[in-house]
Amino acid sequence: KKPKFDYSPLRGAFAEKLKEAGVDASATNDLAAQLVEITQRTSTTTSSIESEPVRIFGPGHMQRLSDQWGIQHTYSVPLMNRIAANGDSGTPFVLEYPNSPQSKIYKQLATSVVSEVSKIKNATNLRPVIEYNEDFHIISIDDEYLEPAELRRACRCAACVEEFTGRQILKPSSVPENIKPMKMVPVGNYAISIDWWGGHKSLYPYRQIKELLQEIAQP
């Protein structure tokens, strides 16, 4: 059951602001009541369409982010007043509405978290060994190799790839062949951060690097 909202403080706040704005005192109460009615109608309309998903960042955005950052598990978490109200009341939404589509998303998310934590606890080595050999000007990934320029051109940051369309902004020809990494630092168990000569900084999911190696290996 949706909790009732007390509009009395809102009506008083409207009346106070109207007085501060110089509105005649005899009219402030009526105007404040009308503003509250508009607010109530807006709230009712919003609640009636709450079940209809609105893609804030456009359709396909979640998949684009997954491809861009190598995120294996992605979920579109609903933004609903009812979920927030349940959290404030102390009764989790998933317990009160266990069979709702929104609860199913949260349950899938929880299952994925448990799965990933289990992998971390049981795995001996989740990260490839990535090093830069300055003598040969090559980046080694375990027993495979990449030219630094090839990896730099594959950067998917917001400065190199248009976020909403996936269109490449970076011109491959603008990356010199002699570019080299100045610093390489693992980010958790899923990616590596690289500071490039020239000042650019990139984040490469290991999944992306693996796919890049596979593309280069193809005849």
List keywords for this structure.
three-stranded antiparallel β-sheet, alpha+beta, 8 helices, 219 residues, 6 strands
Q: Beta fraction of the residues?
A: 5-15%
DSSP E strands, number: 6
Integer average pLDDT: 80
3D shape? elongated
Helix/sheet category: alpha+beta
Radius of gyration: 27 Å
| Topology order in helix (H) and strand (E) letters | HHHHHHEEEHEEEH
> Strand order within the widest sheet?
1-2-3
The major beta sheet can be summarized as: 3 strands, antiparallel
Query: Which percent bin holds the helix content?
Result: 40-55%
Number of helices: 8
Distance between the termini: 62 Å
Low-confidence stretches: 44-50
Explain the overall architecture.
The chain has 219 residues and is an alpha+beta fold. 45% of the residues lie in helices and 13% in strands. It is built from eight helices and six strands; from the N terminus they run ααααααβββαβββα. The protein has helices at residues 8-20, 25-48, 61-69, 81-89, 93-96, 101-122, 148-153, 206-217; strands spanning 130-133, 138-141, 144-146, 181-187, 191-196, 201-205. The strands form two sheets. A three-stranded antiparallel sheet has the order 1-2-3. Strands 4-5-6 form a three-stranded antiparallel sheet. β1 and β2 (138-141) form a beta hairpin. The longest helix is centred in the first third of the chain and has 24 residues, at 25-48. It is elongated and about 85 Å long. Mean pLDDT is 80; it is low at 44-50.
